[in-house]
Every structure is written in C-alpha cells, then in structure tokens.
Amino acid sequence: MTRQHQNHTTYWAFIVHRVSGVLLAAFVPLHLYVLSLAVSDGALLDGLLQWSTTPVVKVMETGLVVMLAAHLTGGLRLLGLEFLAWVSWQKTAFALSVGISLAIGLVFLLNAG
Amino acid sequence: MTDNAVRSETLLWLAQRISAMVLAFCIAVHLATMVVAMQGGLSTAEIAGRVGGDPVWLVFYGVFLAAVSVHAPIGLRTVLLETTSLPPNRIGLLTMLFGLFVVVLGLRTLYGLFQLGPMS
C-alpha cells in the first residue's frame, strides 16, 4: 500500500535525513572508540587502518561519507526551509542535496583509491 | 501539553537548530580534511602528527564534539518518540545517557590524541 504523501519528493528527503541521522548517531561512538586506539593500542589502530584500504571497506567508507554529506546538505535544506522565506523549488533543493552528496562521495572515493 | 513541556520542547528545537548550524561548518571542514588526509594514507603516526598537540584542532574538535553531543540525542529522541511506544520520560533519559556517553568517550579520545602530539 502506498500512501499519497510517499510519492512526494520531499517525503524521500525526510526519509534520507532520518535514516542517515540514526545511522550516523550509531556510528559516532564506534568512530570515537576506534580513534581512541591511537592512544591505547596504536598497533591495533594501524591494523584497522590497513584493513580499511581493502576495496570492500573503501566502498563502505564512501557510503558513510555520502551519508554524512546527505545529512549535511539535507540539514541545510531544512534550515533554509525553517528560517528563510518560503521557496517553491523544494524538489530542486533536494536534487541539489543528492547531487552534492554523491559528488563528495566520488571525490572521497577517487582520493582514497 | 503544560507550559513547562512546551517551553522544554521549544528549547530542544532551538538547541537542535543551533547545533545543526555549528555542525554544518564542522562537517564541511571534516569532509575536506578527510579527503586531504586520505591522500597520504592514514596511520596512527599520521593522525598523531596532524592533530596531536595542536590547540587549534583541539578547539575545533571540542566544538564539533559538543555540537554532536547536543544534536544527535535530540534527533534520536524525536525519532524514538515518533516510532516507538516507549514512555517519553524514558526516551528522554535514554537519549540523554547516549549524549553523555558520547561526551565522555569523545573528551577522553580528544585529550589522548592531543597528548600524543609532537608539540605538547
């Protein structure tokens, strides 16, 4: 069953923002813990960083970067919606958000490769 | 909704938006730094050499951490309130504990990394 509002572009903007937000919140403690290994166990961190150069992890990292960029650009879209005058180009703002996020992911992937 | 509850929701909404504005800047810097740092390859020595002992990075990541610790728990609270039937007080407590956990873990990591640096 598909409800009418689910066909709207900004509904998907809402879903992207929400899903990326929850996943990023879950990732933050893990990220901080891994970084703390630089102090407590540098050899383990170096091993993990070495593992992170494998193609599978690179793709996962790129997904994470795209998610972070999507949450950033989607958040800027929301701030604009709430604090600036109403604009009629909501779909364009979402398209820009998706485009910029994918571009940042691509730049990351090309540099990481 | 009582006056206090309305006031509290308004303050949380405001804190979420102000932290979002701070995060917009921090994440842009973080993304750019990641792309640059990745070029030479990441290692414990590279991370320590880049951020260790540098007060500018310490302040930057301190502000970043503070903004994340405010923004993420409020966002999770909203999601849990809308998608679960847990009591609102319990959701508030759980997400506040999550925020405190991030602050403690983050400060410990930040301080440790700062101490590692060549300049300290």
Number of strands of chain A: 0
> Helix coverage percent of residues of chain B?
over 70%
Gross CATH architecture of chain B: Up-down Bundle
pLDDT averaged over residues of chain A? 87
What's the helix-strand series of chain A?
HHHH
Largest sheet of chain A: none
What count of structural domains of chain B?
Answer: 1
Tell me the number of helical segments of chain B per DSSP (H or I, 4 or more residues long): 4
Tell me the CATH topology of chain B. 3 helical TM bundles of succinate and fumarate reductases
Structural class of chain B: mainly alpha
Q: Any low-confidence stretches of chain A, pLDDT <50, length ≥5?
A: none
Strand content of chain A: under 5%
**What Rg of chain B do the Cα atoms give?**
18 Å
Shape of chain B: elongated
CATH uppermost class of chain B: Mainly Alpha
**Major sheet attributes of chain B:** none
Q: Give the mean pLDDT of chain B.
A: 91
Structure overview:
The complex is a heterodimer of chains A (113) and B (120). With 113 residues, chain A is mainly α. Chain A has a domain at 10-21 and 52-112. Chain A contains four helices and no strands. Chain A has helices spanning 9-40, 42-51, 55-83, 90-112. Helix content of chain B is 86%, strand content 0%. Chain B is elongated. Chain B starts with a helix and ends with a helix. Chain B has a single domain, classed as 3 helical TM bundles of succinate and fumarate reductases. In chain B, 28% of the residues are buried. Chain B is mainly alpha-helical. The chains are: A mainly alpha (113), B mainly alpha (120). At the A-B interface, helix 1, helix 2, helix 3 and helix 4 of A face helix 1, helix 2, helix 3 and helix 4 of B.
